[in-house]
Amino acid sequence: MDQYVNYDGERKTFSIPKGWNLISSEDKPPVPGVNDPIQEIRRALDHPFGSPKIEDLARPGMEVVLLFDDLQRPTPVYLALPEILNRLNRAGIPDERISGVCAVGTHPIPSLEQLRKKVGEEAFTRLTGRLFSHNPHASDNVIIGKTHRGTLVEINSRVAFADLIIGVGECMPHPIAGYGGGYKIIMPGVCSYRSVADHHFSWMRHRNSRVNLLDGNHFFEDILDAGRLSRLAFKLDFIINEKKEVIRAFAGDPMAEHREASNYAAALYSIPLPKLADVTITSAFPLEVGVQATKALTMAGFCTRSGGAIIWVAPQKQAGSILPLVREMGSSESASDFHRRLILGDVPEHLRSFGISYIMQVVYFKELAEKFTVVHVTEGLSAEQVGMMKFAYSPSIQDAIDQVYKKMDRADVAIFPSGGNIIPEVR
Fold first, then answer.
1. Which of 215, 262, 361, 370 has the greatest number of CB atoms lying within 10 Å of its CB?
2. Mean pLDDT of the region 346-375
3. Given this model, what pLDDT does residue 172 score?
4. Same-domain check for residues 260 and 312
């Protein structure tokens, strides 16, 4: 029987050879968004988890900071901020005592026009002169303490001195932190570059730094520590589909609402597997653009046995953003050697303008190349570029299967038709 993966808006079919045992080929159909996202936001704000409502947290005279994620996330900040502003007004806090800070982490700092697009015309007008982007390199970032594991927490000065801090973001499966959202709006969102580097580079390769794991995940638990130190009081997190539609909103205490949102996301995207696969065939769909396309490959690494094979299918039609990553993959350094360089602060010059999470991908990709046979099916990268990544190139899925079959004529096989939005769960 023919199998398929989703690719650039269509299905690519293929067959697996005799001797290969299919252990999963489950697809996750698109989850529709709600009909009225503003009503969903109001519902969440009216029924917070583990916290009073915003109106009950606020007091007249407070200086309030609203944190929101950057343009790399599809969060509908333009819908959320007016609702939050109105509630703060009703609690006696005028717009003039409220500021907005874009929590860029170590990503590029957006222009004022980009901020206007993110927050929407109403919030942009109401917060005129009080909309800022966090600068991770700013000299006035404030040290507020250390986590229990010793990570220095240095944050944006406006956040450090605010009376009330409210965040808006997105909760989705995260390859290292378990799930995005929650206190991630603080770490890395408004932390200094050295704080983010200290945290990310320290915990990025711990065995428990992985998707769908919160308890015992040191990467995540250090984020919790940083968030508590920051005094973030309230968080609104969205679960959003590939069409950038709101599926559900969660609000309240940052830890409590994040746990609820994470459980909800797990129910949507988890795919159970009876064992580790010998061969995993995964499509980047629906996250096929730029660095997002790498998520499917990272997820496949969690459910493939060491020494096995991963066939990674991604069009890479807008491959420009990953070319610096490709270039660094071509170096002779091992994953561990490159990781040691990062710990020492020795970041290659051509990567210095990129965010820390992007730089981390070099370590992960080198590790994948060392641990698995990776065959990349793509039309946007040349065979030479794929080879620089220490991966094998293939022009088609069937050709990739033939390449792997020559080395493994017996294999347990997992197929992820939409690998960009799934959580593989080996039971």
1. 262
2. 92
3. 92
4. no
**Element holding 266 (H helix, E strand):** helix 254-269
| Dihedrals phi, psi of 57, to nearest 5 degrees | -80, -30
Same domain, 111 and 218: yes
Residues 6+ apart with CB under 8 A from 65: 98, 99, 100, 101, 158, 159, 162, 164, 165, 166
What is the bridge-based pairing of β-strands 152-155 and 142-146? antiparallel
Under a CB-based contact definition with an 8 Å cutoff, are residues 424 and 276 in contact?
no
326 shares its domain with 392: yes
For residue 121, which phi and psi values (nearest 5 degrees)?
-65, -40
pLDDT, one tens digit per residue, over 251-262 is 999 999 999 999
Q: Which three-class secondary structure state does DSSP give residue 322? A: helix
Mean pLDDT score, 401-426: 95
Is 415 found in the same domain as 300? Answer: yes
Q: Name the nearest CA neighbour of 84 among 167, 203, 1, 184.
A: 167
Of 217, 247, 267, the residue at which a domain comes to its end is 267
pTM of the model: 0.94
Domain final position from 267, 300, 317: 267
Over range 140-148, report the average pLDDT: 97
Q: Mark residue 9 as left, alpha or beta (left: phi above 0; alpha: psi -120 to 50; beta: remaining).
A: left
Distance CA 418, CA 421 (A): 6
Domain shared by 13 and 43, yes or no = no
pLDDT at 289: 80
221-230 burial, b at 16+ Cβ within 10 Å, e below that, comes to bbbbbbbbbb
**Number of domains the chain contains:** 2
- State the DSSP code for 224: H
| Burial readout 195-217 (b: 16 or more C-beta within 10 A, e: otherwise) | bbbbbbbbbbbeebbbbbbbeeb
Contacts of residue 100, Cβ cutoff 8 Å, sequence gap at least 6: 65, 66, 67, 68, 81, 119, 123, 127, 130, 131, 132
What is the reported pLDDT for 141? Answer: 98
DSSP-based three-state secondary structure for 426? strand
Q: Which range of residues forms the domain containing residue 134?
A: 37-267
Residue 199 phi, psi (nearest 5)? -70, -55
Model confidence at 351, in pLDDT bands (50, 70, 90)? confident
User: Is there a single domain that holds both residue 217 and residue 349?
Assistant: no
